[in-house]
Each structure stands twice: as C-alpha cells, then as structure tokens.
Amino acid sequence: MAKCRVCGKEAEFKIKNYNLVICRECFLKRLYRRIEETIRKYRMFGRDEPICVPVQGYNALEVAEILGEMGYRIQVVGESEPIPQGGVVALGSLLEDEVANVILSILNWELKDDIFPVFQKGGTRFVKPLCLITEEEMDIFREIEGIEKRKGEENIIKRRMKERKLLSIGFWLSFYKSFLREHALLFEEGTRNSYFTK
Ligand SMILES: [Zn+2]
User: How far apart are the CA of 6 and the centre of ligand 1, in A?
Assistant: First the structure.
C-alpha cells in the first residue's frame, strides 16, 4: 500500500470518503481529535464528568472504548441499572444516522430535541460524540480494535440513501453542520433549549 499521507510511514487503511490513505496511528489520532472537537463544539461534557454508556446501546462498545482511550471517565451501565440523577449519557449515533434522522423529522415536520448532538430528557443530558464520524471510519476503528459490528436499526431514509449512493459524505457533513447552525431560525426565540444560542 501507499505511504500514510500524514506521517509518510507505511499506510494501512484508505478512508474512501475522504480519499485519505493513512496508517493506524494517524487514523486513531485523527479520530480522537475529531471527536474531541465535536465534544467541545457542542459543549457535551467536561473532563471530570462521569459519562454513562448504556451497554445495550447502539455502538456502545465503540463509544466506551473511544472515550476511555481519550481519557474520559466512562461508566458502562447495565440495562437494569439506573442512570445517576443529572447524569450524562453518551450515545453512539454516527453522521449517517443523524442526517437520516434530521431528514425524516423534517419530512414529518416534527423537529424533536433528540435530533441534536446534545439534548435533555428527564434531567439526563444525552450526548452524541460520534455524530460527525462516518460509518466507514467506525468500520476501520472496529477492525483496529477487533470489535464485532452489531446490527442496529436503520431508518428508511438512511437505507435508501445508502442503497442508491445518493449523496457524498461531504454533502452529508455540510448538510448536518449547517442544519445545526441554522435550525434556530425555525423556532421562535426562547422556545428551545438550544446549546448554541447561549
Ligand atoms: Zn501515519
């Protein structure tokens, strides 16, 4: 394989969506950096906050492994265990999941809080630190860590988009980012508990 575009050592993976040939070490660094940026940008949680990861959740192992590796305080909680009052729960939704959720919500004209990277529900803060990471990147991460992919539910929009290879990842990324930037325009001021209008 070709040389890593970042460090020049022998590359191991190709991220097709970004047309980037990369070695294992640089891939992981890049992944953690992007997730750190997402956590900060959407003010998900701080260094010292304990982060709960529900063991049955979508991409739960991956989220726990990544955040643990990044030095966050991870607490894997079983199905019957309660989430501490006022706690933070990390979900494993990826970019494709979030774009499909947004489109489906728009089609149904039902924009609920859970389409955002951070939302509150019953005193718990839910966060999606992987929301700007693509499925392809997560597949490479699983390969590196030897994690088996678990089948998750896919909404119909996501399935169709993938089947028909409708849009490029570049489009998905810019669609999602601009949606998050502009969505406040859809709502009257003050009706939303928005993280970026603060
Ligand atoms: Zn490299």
Answer: 5
Which of residues 169 and 187 earns the better pLDDT score? 169
Q: How far is the CA of 27 from the centre of ligand 1 (A)?
A: 7
List C-alpha distances in Å: 119 to 43, 69, 127, 151, 194: 11, 24, 7, 25, 9
**Is residue 40 scored above 80 in pLDDT?**
yes
The per-residue pLDDT for range 134-148, each reduced to its tens digit, is 999 999 999 999 999
Which position has the higher pLDDT, 76 or 173?
76
Q: What pLDDT band is residue 186 in, cutting at 50, 70 and 90?
A: low
Rounded to the nearest angstrom, the distance between the alpha carbon of 197 and the centre of ligand 1 is 38
**Structural domain boundaries of the chain?**
45-186
Domain range 45-186, CATH class? alpha beta
- Do 115 and 102 form a contact (C-beta atoms < 8 A)? yes
What is the value of pTM for the model shown? 0.86
Q: How far is the CA of 16 from the centre of ligand 1 (A)?
A: 16
49 pairs with which residues across the strands? none
Could you tell me the two tokens for 78? 């079983």
Q: Give buried/exposed letters for 76-90 (b at 16+ CB in 10 A, else e).
A: bbeeeeebeeebbbb
